[in-house]
Amino acid sequence: MEPIRMSADKQMRNMERLTVALRRRGFFITYLENRLILHAGSGKWELLLLQRLFDALQIKAAFNKDSVIMDDEFYFTEAMAEQVSFFGAYNQESQCPQHMRSWKTFVKRRHGYKLDTLTLDAGVAYLVKMLSKTGILTEMSCDGHGKQAPTIWFAGAWNAVWFEIVCGKLMAEERLHYRWTVEEDRRGSHLLTAKKAPMEKWNLELVQKDALQIGAYLELYAEELVVSKRQYFKHRSMKEQAMLLSQDYEALKSWMKEKVNVFC
Predict the structure, then answer these.
(1) Is residue 3 in a domain?
(2) For residue 171, how many other CB atoms are within 10 A of its CB?
(3) Do both 127 and 48 map to the same domain?
(4) Vertex 94, ends 104 and 19: CA angle to 5°?
(5) Of 142, 139, 256, 133, whose CA–CA distance to 207 is shortest?
(6) Among 104-118, 140-154, 230-244, where is mean pLDDT lowest?
(7) Could you give the CA distance from residue 36 to residue 57 in angstroms, rounded to a whole number?
(8) Are 76 and 59 in contact (CB under 8 A)?
(9) At 222, phi and psi to the nearest 5?
(10) 143 occurs within a structural domain
(11) Helices 249-263 + 238-245 axis angle, to 10
(12) What confidence score (pLDDT) does residue 4 get?
């Protein structure tokens, strides 16, 4: 008797579930039939990192130059999806070089660093990658590991202000599980972090859900935001004022909002 083959519908559901889990983990990926396809913006070692993840979770696949071919009979459960979504980071992302914090880089760069996904904590990986996709540069990130506040450090105050301009309305709507704010730390760095109620415990799953919601908003408008940023701040005469205001975050924010409003 021949073995019963998996139906096409069930295979497609497995591929959808796997793709969603990988995107939650921060991979720029889609699928076509039984093939996973890495998109532009992926880090240099993404395919090798995918293979490491698959090997660790015993998911069978064949690895090609820029794609992964799944076995026709592979299965993928909700429990496996959870394992993929929260697969641990193996290292920390490298700090951003000094020149990447400059006003010129902020204005002109269309994309942040192409970070290797498994260097990013699972709770914030997707959001960090989407910030990069929209040209908002970051230096470091930590999801808090369910013990403390998740934090993403921006590469310079202008990136923090631009994030507030872009996502301020979303965060003010209070549809997120935590209250996300941009703050300045004792070293003068600007960061995105979350606040919880005093007696509440951190929940990494809720952190990831918030990060996914903010990241999805950025992904939806990514191309538009990259173009708009250059349009609003392209004049060379703006650099001197931006540098003068860089030590006064609120003044910098008011000035940048004014420049955006000129075009709106």
Answers:
(1) no
(2) 21
(3) no
(4) 100
(5) 142
(6) 104-118
(7) 17
(8) yes
(9) -55, -55
(10) yes
(11) 150
(12) 47
- What is the spatial distance between Cα 119 and Cα 69, in angstroms, rounded to a whole number? 24
Tokens of 43: 């880090």
Residue 96 banded pLDDT, cuts 50, 70, 90:
low
Domain residue limits at 147: 98-263
- Would you say 137 and 155 are in contact if contact means Cβ atoms under 8 Å apart? yes
* Whether residue 106 sits in one domain with residue 30: no
A 10 A CB-CB count for 198 gives: 5
Amino acid at 135: G
Strands 35-38 and 67-70: antiparallel
- Asked if 114 and 215 sit in the same domain, the reply is yes
2: exposed, middle or buried (Cβ count in 10 Å: 0-12, 13-18, 19+): exposed
Scan for tokens 């970070």, then name that residue: 115
Q: What tokens were used for 98? A: 């000094």
59, 85, 111 - which closes a domain: 85
232 pLDDT tier (thresholds 50, 70, 90):
very high
Same domain, 114 and 169: yes
Half-sphere exposure of 159 (CA within 13 A, CB side): 32
- The one-letter code for the residue type at 217 is Y
Confidence of residue 8 (pLDDT cuts 50, 70, 90): confident
Residues 187 and 251 in one domain: yes
Mean per-residue pLDDT of the chain: 89
CB 153 within 8 A of CB 141: yes
In CATH, what number is assigned to the domain containing residue 64?
3.30.70
